[in-house]
Amino acid sequence: MNTQIDQLRALVASRFPTAMQTDFSRPSHVNGGVELVPGALVEIVATNQVAGAGLLLLHICNQAVGPVAFVDASDALDLAAIPLGLRNRLLWLRGHGVGDSLKATDLLLRDGNLSSVLLDLRQVPLAQLSGVSSSVWHRLRMLAERAHAGVMVFTSHKAVGCAAVRWLVSGAFRLDDVQEEQAGLLGGLNPICQRGFGYTAPRVGNTDLSLQS
Amino acid sequence: MFAAWRLPQFLLQALKVPARACAAVLDGNPHKDSGSKDDALLCVSRLAEKAGVHTGMRASQGLARCPKLECLSRSEFAEKQLQDVLLQSAETWTADFESTQPGVCLLDLRRAYRFQTPTWFEHGMLMHQDMRERGYELCIGLAETADLALLASHVAFPVKVIRGSVGEEKAAFLELPLSVLAPHPGLQETLRLWGIHTLGELTALKRLAVGERLGAPGLELWDLARGGRERILKLVRPRIQYKKSIELDNGIETLEPLLGLLRELAVPLCSELSLAWKVTAFVHLELRFDDGSSHQTTLRIAEPTRDVAVLLRVLETHLEGVKSSAPIIFAELEVIATEPVAAQDLLFERGLRDPNKFSETLSALEALLGRGRVGRGELLPTHRPDAFKLVSFLEQAGAVDALSVNPKSGLPLMRFRPPWLAEVGFRRSRPASVKSQRHSFQVIDCRGPWLLSGHWWDELHAWEAEIWDIASQDGCLYRLVRENRAWRLEGRYA
Fold this sequence. Notes:
The complex is a heterodimer of chains A (about 210) and B (about 500).
Chain A: H1 2-15, E1 41-45, H2 53-63, E2 68-72, H3 84-87, E3 90-94, H4 98-111, E4 116-121, H5 126-130, H6 134-147, E5 150-155, E6 165-168, H7 182-187, E7 192-195
Parallel strand pairs in A: 1-5, 1-6, 2-3, 2-4, 4-5
Antiparallel strand pairs in A: 6-7
Helix pairs in contact in A: 4-6
Chain B: E1 2-6, H1 10-14, E2 23-27, E3 40-44, H2 46-50, H3 59-65, E4 70-72, H4 76-91, E5 97-101, E6 104-108, H5 120-133, E7 139-143, H6 146-153, E8 159-161, H7 170-173, H8 185-194, H9 199-203, H10 207-225, E9 242-252, H11 255-275, E10 279-289, E11 294-305, H12 308-319, E12 328-338, H13 355-369, E13 374-379, E14 388-391, E15 413-427, E16 430-436, E17 440-454, E18 463-472, E19 477-483, E20 486-493
Parallel strand pairs in B: 2-4, 7-8
Antiparallel strand pairs in B: 1-6, 1-7, 2-3, 5-6, 9-12, 10-11, 10-12, 13-14, 15-16, 15-20, 16-17, 17-18, 18-19, 19-20
Helix pairs in contact in B: 11-12, 12-13
C-alpha cells in the first residue's frame, strides 16, 4: 500500500514539479535532517545556556509549506528576525504560559487546517514543564496524527514522552557569532538525534514513475 | 438632454428663511450654534444684497450696512436634508442623476420616456413647479451636455434651455462671475490678479496661452467656461441593505433560543442574497438588553458564503464569549454582501482546507489568549526595537511591510516581555556585572555600545537607547539596553 502511495506521489511530482517542491526536492541532510514529521511530535531540546534553537526554529519555519502556526508560550518572538515572506504566513499565538499554549495547540490541531505547528516552551520554568501530564502529550500526538500535522515542540529539558523524534541542540556560539551569516551558523549547529533515529518522512528516489496496475 | 437643478441661496433655503427676509448665513463651524461677528458671510438674501451687503463681508460690516440683517449659523443637518429632498425629487424624473455639489443636481434625461412629447421649456417649468410645491425655489438649466446645463442654470430664472453651443448664448454667459465654476482658490486668486473676473474675460484669452501658464487646471476651467466637455455623470445609486431586526416582548436569556431567532433572521437574508447572486463577507450583529445596554459586533466571514449553517456557526462561536446581566429584547442582523469569488482555487496552492472553520478557531484562540495576541505580526514604520502590531491572520497581507528588509544575519533574539530590569556594574566603562530580578551574573565579554534614537522631532515620543551584547560566565548571550537612564535585559540570543 505504502509503495503505491509513494509511486503516486512521485507521479504527481513529475507532472506538477513546482507544486510538489516540498520534502522530496529538499536536501536531506540540512542540520542533520531535523524536520517536521507529518502526523507526529518532534521535540527539540535546547538548554537555556545553549544558543541555536532559535536558528533551527527559523529554518524549520522557512522550510514548512503554507501557513505555519507558532505557539509562543512566553511571548518571546522577535518579529524583526523573521523574513517578510515568512512573516506573512506565520500565525503567531502569544501565550501566557504552558497551560494556555497547550490549549491553543490543541485547538489548532483539532481545527485541522494547518499542517505545521511549532510550540515554543523554552523559557517555561522546569517545574511547570515537568508538571505537564503525559496524557496531554499523548492527546496532542493523536490529534496531530488525525490532522496529519507536523508538530515540533521546543523545550529546555526533555518533556515530551511520546515524541517520535527528539533532537538535542548543542550549538556553542560566542558574541562574535551574533552578527554572522545565518547560513554559516546553521552549519555549525550539529543537532544530535536522541530518539527516533531514521524516523523521517518517506523519500522517493529516481525510481519507475509509472503506476502499477 | 441634461438638466441642471440649482437651488439658489442654498444655505438660506436649507434654513427655510423666507424669500423676503433680510438675512445672511455665517461662515463658521456648522456644529456651532452661535456665530461670531468676525465670521464672513457665506450667503446673503436678495433683500440684504439690495442694502449693500454681499458675500465675503464680515458679519460686523454687514450689520453696519444693514442693521436689520439677521445673521444665521449654518446647519449641517438642514443642508443634508435639503440635498436629500433635491435628490428624491430628481429621482421622480429620471433614474440617472448626479449629486454634483450641495444644492446642485444633474439629471441625464436622454433615456427618460416621459420627455418624448412636449417642449423642453415646459418640462423645465414642470420641474420648477414640482420643487415649488415642496417649498423651494429652483433654477433649471437644460442643454446637450452636463456642464453646459450647469452653466445655463446660473442664467436661468427659473428655466433656461440651450440648444447648440455656448457660442450662441454668449451674451448670457459673458457676465457670469468665475466663482460659478467653483475654481481652486489659488487659481481664482491668480486670475483675479490678472484682472479676470468673469467667464467672458477668461474665454477671451487664447486656450493655448492659458494652458501654457496655468496648466491642466487652467485648461479645464477654460473649457468649462466655454460649456465644458462630454463627461460621464457620477450617478447616485441607493445602497441595498440586507438587514433584519426583531423586537421581543419577552426577553431571551440563553444562547439556544437566540440562535433560533437569528436563524429566522438569517434565512430570508440569505434568500435575498441568493436572488441577487451575492454572498456574505461580513455579518453585523446588534443585541440590545433589558437594562439599556447593547452589544454590537462585525464578524468577518473568511470564505464568503450564503450558507445559513455557516453563518450561524460563526455567530454561535462569537456569542459563546458574550455575557450580559440582562435579557435580550432586540436583535438585528445585517449581512454585508459581496460578489462571489469567480476564480477556482488551485489544486496545490490553497492554504487552508476550510477557511470558515479556521476563522472560528481563530476566534476561539483569541478568546483563550486575549485580544491582540493572535494573528500575523507586522512591523511598524519605525526603527524602534520591538515595534510591531498584530493583524488578523485572514486579512490579505500587504505586498511590502513597513520594514521589508529580510534579516539574514545574526542569532535570533528571544525577547523578555516585559524586559528584566537590571543593575549593571561597570569596569573601564564597560558592563562587568548584571543583577536582574531573575538572574545575576558576571559579564565575561561584551560588544557595544550601539546607539539608536528616533522620533527626535516629537517631544512626547522621542527615544534613544544604548545597546550592548554581553556574554555571561555560564555561556548565555544577552542583549542589554539602557533607555531613560534605566538598564534592562531585553532578551537572550537563542
